[in-house]
């Protein structure tokens, strides 16, 4: 497989990357569906650090989905508060062995069960969840059944309903191609749409090119096909705003979506099922669907303000911090949050 570097960073970021590497570990954790790989950033033995569990999207693993973003926000204030546990869905990490031919891939409820297995393994009583796309659905699905273990959720491009006919057909074709042929232009185009939306011009051409090449060289098409099939067969999330047709979620939720994302309407639909007193919805302007890579400054600002509202970083000047980070990256600073509402 070709070696693809998803991003490059300025020299100013190098000490932060080295600091993160010094507190990095990987473990294979036994679950009800076999072993899953967990990447850990931070000192898990420090009782002062709050656990944060992440879950990735289709076509990515925990490293390719979150590593660049956490390197961007790997500042002292953040690293001092949290220990990050990046969970991979079964068989989805880039160095995974092919799944056995007789392996029965878990449903989305089963994938959510792996979160409980990981939390139990590391003796995590409560955590903040951070998920993207399919990972957001998985974490919200877990929280609906385990509210006492979830402090808060940060969800990007989240969908709560079952797949529609068009989505079902499109993804079913992709799963079939992946099993019979491997990675094809059709499947790569689907993954690009899923992550970027239709208007690639909203996103950096370099990021678009890097991800297209990355998807072309995914190593385990059969495993990805199984993950896609599990997602298209998902059941609707059992939540409702008033608790009459599902669980009333009391967990604080921050939803993020890029203005150019293919999933804007899905996130709005999710918001209609959340209690306005505990939910925030933010659309980030001038961004494609891949907001963690395209607009890490805006995502960082939104996350920090949300976490500050929960009692973390009480003395941190969030606006000043994100402006400084933006200047380090691009030579100028600005706030990119254009829409925030909990009234949808």
TrEMBL record:
UniProt-listed InterPro entries: AB_hydrolase_fold, NDRG
Q: What family classification does the UniProt entry report for this protein? A: Belongs to the NDRG family.
The protein depicted here goes by the name Protein NDRG3
From which source organism is this entry? Caenorhabditis nigoni
Task: Give the gene that encodes this protein.
Answer: Cni-Y48G10A.3
């Amino acid at each position: 497989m070709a070696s693809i570097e998803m991003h490059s960073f300025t020299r100013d970021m190098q000490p932060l990357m080295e600091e993160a590497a010094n507190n990095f570990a990987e473990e294979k954790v036994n679950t009800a569906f076999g072993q899953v790989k967990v990447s850990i950033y931070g000192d898990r033995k420090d009782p002062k650090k709050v656990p944060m569990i992440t879950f990735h999207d289709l076509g990515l693993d925990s490293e390719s989905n979150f590593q660049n973003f956490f390197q961007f926000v790997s500042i002292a204030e953040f690293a001092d508060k949290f220990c990050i546990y990046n969970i991979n869905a079964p068989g989805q990490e880039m160095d995974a062995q092919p799944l056995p031919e007789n392996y029965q891939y878990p449903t989305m409820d089963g994938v959510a069960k792996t979160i409980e297995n990981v939390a139990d393994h590391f003796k995590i009583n409560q955590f903040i969840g951070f998920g993207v796309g399919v990972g957001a659905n998985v974490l919200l699905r877990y929280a609906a059944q385990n509210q006492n273990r979830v402090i808060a959720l940060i969800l990007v491009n989240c969908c709560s309903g079952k797949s529609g006919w068009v989505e079902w057909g499109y993804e079913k074709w992709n799963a079939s191609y992946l099993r019979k042929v491997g990675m094809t232009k059709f499947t790569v185009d689907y993954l690009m749409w899923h992550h970027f939306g239709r208007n690639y011009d909203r996103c950096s051409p370099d990021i678009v090119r890097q991800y297209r090449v990355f998807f072309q060289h995914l190593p385990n098409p059969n495993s990805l096909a199984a993950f896609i099939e599990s997602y298209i067969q998902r059941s609707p999330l059992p939540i409702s705003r008033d608790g009459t047709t599902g669980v009333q979620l009391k967990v604080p939720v921050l939803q993020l979506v890029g203005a150019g994302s293919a999933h804007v309407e899905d996130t709005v639909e999710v918001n209609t099922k959340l209690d306005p007193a505990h939910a925030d919805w933010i659309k980030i302007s001038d961004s494609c669907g891949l907001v963690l890579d395209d607009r890490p400054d805006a995502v960082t600002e939104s996350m920090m303000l949300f976490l500050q509202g929960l009692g973390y970083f009480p003395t941190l000047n969030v606006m000043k911090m994100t402006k400084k980070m933006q200047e380090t990256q691009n030579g100028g600073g600005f706030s990119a949050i254009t829409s925030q509402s909990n009234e949808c």
